[in-house]
Design a protein that fits this description.
Helix content is 36%, strand content 28%. It is α/β, with parallel strands linked by helices. A hairpin with a 2-residue loop joins strand 4 and strand 5. The chain is globular, with a radius of gyration of 17 Å.
Length: 206
């Protein structure tokens, strides 16, 4: 599903770092446009800058030069104190290693971003969590801990967690990298289904 609404624009982005006074350029004059409703894949060899780009888009890393526009707003110089709040409200993350907290239940893992967002009603949080778990087909695992689940189930929970704040875009960094071939297909089909429902997805892969 694709609309004509521009969600993200990067203009002339440069990212580099220095080692022993020698500059190592990771991204150079990169331009990128992501439309609302797209499913965009970034492919490349290890070390080619894929994750660096994703971290820039997700406000996890800063860049040296260029301009970042999100939903028409220039966020190039967004304050450090505002970055986490902006991330939590606008972006959902899915990682290769799931990044779930094993000491918490599935419910508690999914509740955290809602608490950070300021959803004070426990009933509202519960409704949202159950709704998203229904989408990924794992409502029956709501009281389980991540280490009691298979890798594929953990990744589905991670995707459900990325959906709880109704983010504008989901960034998936090698989301099938730690899974077997059959489970990879299941996760990709889930992401495709979410995209068909209108969710914008940017996926990094080899």
């Amino acid at each position: 599903m694709k609309s004509n609404s521009n969600l993200i624009t990067l203009k002339d982005i440069k990212k580099s770092y220095f080692v022993n006074n020698e500059e190592h350029i990771i991204l150079n004059n990169l331009n990128l446009s992501i439309e609302q409703g797209e499913f965009l894949m970034i492919m490349g060899k290890s070390g080619s800058g894929k994750t660096s780009l994703l971290n820039i888009l997700g406000f996890l890393n800063k860049f040296n030069e260029g301009q970042y526009i999100f939903k028409g707003e220039d966020v190039t110089f967004i304050k450090e104190s505002d970055r986490a709040k902006f991330r939590n409200e606008n972006i959902g993350f899915v990682f290769q290693q799931f990044n779930l907290i094993n000491t918490l239940t599935v419910y508690q893992n999914m509740e955290l971003p809602l608490i950070y967002k300021g959803v004070t009603s426990k009933e509202e949080r519960e409704t949202i969590i159950k709704e998203k778990l229904e989408i990924v087909g794992l409502l029956d695992k709501i009281k389980q801990r991540p280490n009691q689940l298979s890798g594929g189930q953990q990744q589905r929970i991670a995707i459900a967690r990325a959906l709880v704040n109704d983010a504008d875009i989901i960034f998936a960094d090698e989301p099938t990298g730690a899974l077997d071939a059959e489970t990879c297909v299941d996760i990709m089909n889930l992401l495709k289904d979410l995209n068909k429902q209108g969710k914008t997805i940017l996926m990094v892969t080899h």
